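User: structure tokens for this one?
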Amino acid sequence: MELLTLTSKELERIRTLQRVEDGGLSQIQAAQSLGLSVRQVRRLAKALGRDGPQGVLSRRRGATPNNRLNDALRASIIERCRGPYRGFGPTFLAQTLTEHDGITVSREWLRALMIEQKLWRPRARHRNIHPLRERRPRFGELVQMDGSPHDWFEERGPRCSLLLAIDDATGCITSGRFEPAETTDGYFRLLDAHLLKFGRFCAAYTDKHSIFRYSGSSTDQDVVTQLQRALDELDIELICANSPQAKGRVERANRTLQDRLIKAMRLAAISTIDAGNAFLPHFIDDHNCRFAVNAALDQDAHRSIEGLDLRDILCRKDQRLVTKNLMFQLEDHCFKLVDPYSRRHLVSGSRLTILRHHDGHMTVRHADHILEVQAVGKLVRNAPIVGAKDLNEHLNRRIPDPRKVRKPAANHPWKTFRPPPPAA
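Assistant:
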């Protein structure tokens, strides 16, 4: 007696076909019940009458699937997942195998293989519900900017920050660059790349970092940051978000790049900021082709930069007064004016405009005249500058705690004292 293993679906088919054979159900009703065609029901009923329940079973059961990959290719994919492609998700892995290795496999097949080999674990995402904000209808109407400090080179190089500018209407990354830290000069370089390629956008959407907005007391409402002053000169509105979720497009882009960009730079053996900045344009173009969407309107909201001197706008501007010996101080450095114009026209108290460009150069102006300066030295502070977090530790080193018992040194006279020998 042969033992058959039936699934619940096959068992339901046999019961329905038995009712058709007994006359209690028509073939049309059986077809509707099983979700099959009448012709298929007729074929199955004939097989059931000829071969019994064995005729209803699939003849492909236990056979190797026609689309099964050979064991060598399967082992090669597993080896790559444990080697250069470690940490890749199924979607990104499928794309990378196609582009770099010429291996085309299904994303879901890779997902099942990686779960089987314990190379990937599906993560349940706990989403906080936030109301969606509609995208701006035109390209260039709103640009979201943010910096993401991260170990972008996976300990092959220094930790740094990735500065991004993303168009709100399309989700297109308009510019990006690696910087040692999130600084004003770094954002000037980011803006310069966007303005030269697309023009002036209408509004910038950022967080409340002190680079963008003065974070001092409420009484200093007229104080503006260097970046805010530059945006005003470019006629670009600055909008500061109250939460990270409000500028979710750039936040999600940072999360995506912390996965895909890191792995792409690993494959390209990139370990320095300069090499990363050279690699970014190609990666951004590929990223935009995959993820950018079309704007609701075909109009471009960018405005021309013709007639604007970006070098004099995207810089740090400071005002200084000339001393009686034609000198001025900028931070800890002292500079002397050495050109003939300064000696003839400037007096003590004359106001200078100092332009510190993001490429490291400095321009000194009085009215419309550019002045020549010479560095004469750096101020020496009598006391070191100590941050608030290190203040207590610094004071403990400088001022001994009177509550602690002082232990004399090993060569202290008290320890080396020897009483004179007693008199005879």
